[in-house]
Amino acid sequence: MTSLDAPARTTRFGLPMALVSAFTFGSSGPMAKALIDTGWTAGAAVLVRLGGSAIVLGVVAAILQRGRLRLSSASLRTLVAYGVVAMAGAQLSFFNAVRTLDVGVALLLEFTAPVLLVLWTAARTRRRPPAPTLIGAALTMVGLGFVLDLAGAGGVDPAGVAWGLLAAVCLAAFFVLSERQHDDLPPIVMAAGGTAIGAGVIALTGLLGIVPLGFAAADVTLAGNATTWLLPALWLVLVSTSIAYLTGIGAVRRLGTRSASFVALTEVLFAALVAWALLAQVPGPSQVVGGICIITGIVVVRRTEATRAPAAPETTLEPGHAL
Questions:
Q1: Three-class secondary structure assignment of the chain
Q2: What is the pLDDT of residues 68-101, one digit of tens each?
Q3: Pairwise CA distance, residues 295 & 290, whole Å
């Protein structure tokens, strides 16, 4: 592929894949919230999501990679880190956040990840970010204050906020790990292996009593109607995980870490729309203002970093570098 072909490939495939990934990921919060409201624990929802997806993706990977799968030690290290942090860690943190926070608020906390990536790059290179980047980061922090309603009487649950911020760290790791290029670790193997490892971690911690695992067979309520719990469970497995991770990994490898992370901001919009349609969750004025500040700040950071990219390559985020 020539350099002239790359932009066309990015436009034709990278952006649509990123948008599909954003929608499918965005739908996971409302579906998990519906299960949790009927008595499921966050750990149980994650176990079903990852365990079911591991089976689906494992079958696909076995068919596509029949007799050709030979993982190097570097690939195995990436896969283990991906399963533990980007799969189990990110989802468990986010699902615990939505136990006490609205889906939109939890997502806005999680999506401070792009700012974390920029700050991490600055720390690794020991270079002070330019003024627009600092302004964008500051605007994001102001937005967080509005989202958390720090000036309000009630505020939000501190434990939920902590889980949401931990999800942001895990999401930053997802973008970095997804960009790593290993010839023996194609996206389908990375997604299948990651879900299997993540499910194993959740199952083990559940057996040890570290992560509570509680299930319920009661009907869930979606869009004001009672329906079987199988609907959100299957959606989490097939759509919000299997499709979401495959398209997400593909988008990161085509667009790059930062570009994909900023296109993924549309997940906040998709999640808010799905939560409004299925759970009747409507953000308050403070959350709307905060959301606008956060997204605006992140866009400012992204545009500044994209402008600097030709002169200052993102060496700390290239494949093979750890978070």
A1: CCCCHHHHHHHHHHHHHHHHHHHHHHCHHHHHHHHHHCCCCHHHHHHHHHHHHHHHHHHHHHHHCCCCCCCCHHHHHHHHHHHHHHHHHHHHHHHHHHHHCCHHHHHHHHCCHHHHHHHHHHHHHCCCCCHHHHHHHHHHHHHHHHHCCCCCCCCCCHHHHHHHHHHHHHHHHHHHHHHCCCCCCCHHHHHHHHHHHHHHHHHHHHHCCCCCCCCCCCCEEECCEEECCHHHHHHHHHHHHHHHHHHHHHHHHHHCHHHHHHHCCHHHHHHHHHHHHHHCCCCCHHHHHHHHHHHHHHHHHHHHHHHHCCCCCCHHHCCCCCC
A2: 777 888 888 889 999 999 899 999 999 999 888 8
A3: 9
Judge contact between 206 and 43, C-beta under 8 A.
yes
**Residue of 91 and 298 predicted with greater confidence:** 91
Using only C-alpha atoms, what is the Rg of the chain?
19
113-140, pLDDT tens digit by residue? 877 887 777 788 888 778 887 888 888 8
What residue spans define the domains of the chain?
20-63+92-317
Distance CA 177, CA 230 (A): 31
User: φ and ψ at 246, to 5 degrees?
Assistant: -60, -45
Cα distances (Å, whole numbers) of residue 203 to 85, 192, 212, 218, 282: 15, 16, 10, 22, 34
Residue 36 has a pLDDT of: 93
Pairing outcome for strands 220-222 and 225-227: antiparallel
Do the Cβ atoms of 215 and 44 come closer than 8 Å?
yes
